[in-house]
Task: structure prediction
Amino acid sequence: MKKITYILLLVFGITLITSCVEEDYFGASSSGNIKEILVSNQAGNAVILTDSLLVKVEIPGGVDLTQITLETLEISSFAYANKSVGDVLNLQDNQMIMVTAEDGSVHPWTIEAIVASETPQLSNGDLNQWYLTSSNYYEPGSDANTTIWGTGNQGTQILGDLATFPEDLGSGNLAAKLITLDLGPLAGTFGTPIAAGSLFTGYFNPDNIEISDPEAAIEFGTPFAARPTKLRFKYQYTPGPENEDQDGNPLNYGDACDIYALLEIRQSGNIQRLATAWFRSDAEQGSLTTQEVDFIYGELDASYPAYMFPENGIFVSDDLAQFGLSTHITFVASSSFDGAHFAGAVDSELIIDDIELVYE
Result:
């Protein structure tokens, strides 16, 4: 996906920050935590309560709880579990996963299924919750462990600036403000003159860093099982005055914001596009206004612009387009539509709020 901007300079700084061992200890480790878990048909991020050794996973109504497959299980370093990826869990009743730490201590984790709403929303879609990071800037969500949201701030804050931050609309209502930054002459020599403000479902994975492709470190999407008909949000947009390419050459068209959601079916490492809702606009919108965009289920025809098509070219079959349930949703907003190629207009500004999924 080519819509989120990270700069090559930031990669080295983030690598140093994230390369520290998370569970330091002397001697045999007593850590027996579940750090990440994903099961089949999961409708949202798992809630992992370390203090009570409890994991809560949302499963859509109608799914057979007796046949839930364990798809991802990450536990503490040097520990092992009595369940493995591929095992089938019966979540009709609470299930146990026993995690044995390096020192031999056993940690009995309870896995609890919660039947999800048939019309789920994105957690913190109103963008009223923001948490303070250890680097002293704000990110959307209640905390780093449970948030479904990511931004490009892990890159720009290293250079002392932020491209995405909370905007106070008054009366306790917060939104996200995304701006396109001039990163200065030094960054320009690396071919990274600007950074577009970005907001997306997903997270930054330092294990996937590639110098030639900064976006490779972004894991887009969050578990989501539903079939909404529309994407609704409030936005305000002012494009910057001078739209330029990566080399600083003026472009003969203006900057534009991008706001879109993709419903996907992910199985065995493969991603198929189920539905597409895409809004791109270069028009100035001086005050917050509500915008609705239809989800288009199935394959897009030639009348749609190329940027709306999946990079891998894979759509679901006609049958799945009619009846299939998504496994993930990817939502993205950017203040400059071509920011991933370091093209855009400095001072382009997008405010976005109240992201909703409509069911009819």
